[in-house]
Design brief:
This protein has about 140 residues and is α/β, with parallel strands linked by helices. It has five helices and four strands; from the N terminus they run βαβαββααα. The protein has a four-stranded mixed β-sheet with strand order 1-2-4-3. The model has no long low-confidence stretch (mean pLDDT about 90).
């Protein structure tokens, strides 16, 4: 299906082709390449606005996920009944925030961007980490284990 990557920020240079290739690999690993996926790259101001609106946290963050299938059990793939339901949802990447964290920690920006996209993708597949038990399930997400 389709993978749409939108870069809606101009603060941090973003090479979309390598990012697309890495996300497509993630989709194959997670066996979700048949589903539509949106990846939207934002600056600190806009990711903070979304974080404030949807999580009541008025700070920038690295990733926010908005699943199409909201009640998906961790580890289960969606079981669409109609063509329009072959959608995982959207992952919003705070690329400016991620870049700043990489600079502070001496980490490779594109590697961390990929791991953060995987984190967001796992959230679309029902994984959460609000409790210790949920965090243990996240560690079972195929790409993160």
């Amino acid at each position: 299906m389709s993978l749409v990557i939108r870069n809606l920020q101009k603060v941090i240079p973003l090479r979309r082709i390598p990012l697309r290739r890495r996300i497509e690999i993630l989709q194959k690993i997670l066996d979700v390449q048949q589903f539509d996926l949106g990846v939207i790259c934002l600056d600190n101001r806009n990711i903070q606005l979304l974080n404030s609106t949807y999580r009541q946290k008025n700070v920038p963050t690295d990733v926010l996920s908005f699943p199409f299938h909201e009640n998906l059990k961790a580890g289960d793939l969606p079981q669409p009944s109609f063509r329009d339901e072959y959608n995982l949802g959207d992952v919003f990447l705070g690329v400016e925030y991620i870049y700043q964290q990489c600079q502070e920690n001496g980490e490779d920006y594109y590697s961390i961007l990929t791991v953060t996209a995987a984190h967001g993708l796992c959230h679309l597949l029902g994984y959460q980490h609000n409790t210790e038990a949920e965090w243990e399930q996240v560690k079972g997400c195929p790409y993160l284990s």
